[in-house]
Amino acid sequence: MRSRGLLPYCIVAGSMSLGYGSIYTLLADLRDRYGFSEAQLGYIVAAGFLAGFVTQLALARLADRGYAPMLVRGGIVLAMGAMIGSALATEFWAFLVARLLLGLGSGAVGPAMRRIVITREPDAVGANLGRLAAFDVAGFMLGPLVAAVVAEALGIRAPFVFLAAVFVGVLVLASRLDLTAGAASAPGGRALRTLLQRPAIQATLAASVAFYLTVGMFEAIWAVLLRDHGAETWLIGLTLSMFTLPMIFLAPIGGRAAQSRGPLRVVAVSLTVATVCTFSYGVLPSLWMLLAVSLVHAVADSFTMPSNQVAAALGSPPEHLSAAQGLLGATGLAAAGLTGLFAGFVYEEVGRFAVCTGTAVLMLVFLAVALTLGRRQLADTPEMRGTDEPLAPDAIGSGVPDLP
Fold first, then answer.
1. Mind listing the domains of the chain with CATH numbers?
2. Is the separation of the CB atoms in 139 and 246 below 8 Å?
3. What are 120-169's pLDDT values in tens digits?
C-alpha cells in the first residue's frame, strides 16, 4: 500500500470519527432543549469513550488472527445504528445507548485499520500512521461543523440522519477494500499480559493517558465553556473544526519525526505544550484568547497522537500488533471517558479553573511516569546512537528490548 493507495482506508477511519465528533457542537442545544445537566452531558460523552475502551481491549486481537474485515465492516454497521438511534432519541438514556453503540463500532474499526497500515508499508509506518491519524482527527472535528450546518438548516435531528446515510456509503467503500493485508495467525496466548510486561508499552500507555486526559476534558466542557463566553452554536462548531487544520498537515510530519527521532522524545515536547494549553483554558478571560490557544494545542496534538501509535508499533511483537494498538486506544479512551465523566460535574459545581488545572496536573504526572518507564527508548535515538539513520523498518513490530 503506497501513500496514494492509503486514501480509501483513511476515509473509512475518518468517517468513524465523524460520528464521534458530531454531537459535541450540539451539547449546548441538548442542554437547552431537553434540560440535560452538564453532568449528564459528561455521561453521554463518557459512554462512547468507555464503550470504545471495552471493544478495543476485548476485540482488537481478533485482527491479528485474520478477522480485520469482520471488525471493520461490523463496526460501520454499529455506527450506522447509533446515528439512527440518536435521531430518534428524546431521553437521556436513549442518547446514552446510542453513544455506546457508536463507541462499540469505532472501537472495532480503529485497531484493525492501524494493523493494515503498519504491516503493508513498514518503511513508512510513521508517516502512514500520521496520515491515518490526520483523517481520524479531521473526522472527529469536522463532525461538529457538519452537525452545526445541518442542524441550522434542518433541525437538531437532521445531522444524525445525514451521518447515517454517510455510513451507508462508507460501508459500500469498505466492502471494496482489501482488509486482509497483514492478517496473521497470532498465538492464542495472553496478548495483553505479554504486552503489559514490556516497559516500552508501559511508557506508551502512560503517555496515552496524559494525552487523553485533555481530550476527555476538552470534549466534555468545551462547547459549554464557549457558550458561557457568549459563543453561538455555529461558532462552537467552527472552532472545533478549525482545531483539525494543523493536524491534517502536521500529523504525517509528526509520525515521521517519531519514527526517525524516537516517539517518546517527540511526545515529551508535545505533551508539555498541551499541558500548558490545558491549564490556560481555566484562566484566560477572552473567548478569542481561548480560541488562539486551542490552535497551539492542535499543533502539539498533531505530534502526540501519531507518536503514541508509532511507539506501540515499535514496542509490540509482530503477532500482537493490533492488540497493542487496541490496548493503546482502550487505555486512552478509558482516560478520556473517566475525565469526561468528572469534568462536566466539576465544571458545574466548582468551575473551569478547577477542572482545567486538575487535568493539567494529572497530565504532568503521567508524562513523568512515561519518561521514567521509557528511559531505554529515550536513549535509542539517532543522537544517542551517533547516527542520523531513523529506526529501521524491520524494527516495526519486532518489540523494543526490555531493560535489564
1. 3-180+193-383 (1.20.1250.20)
2. no
3. 777 778 888 888 888 887 787 777 778 888 888 888 888 889 999 999 99
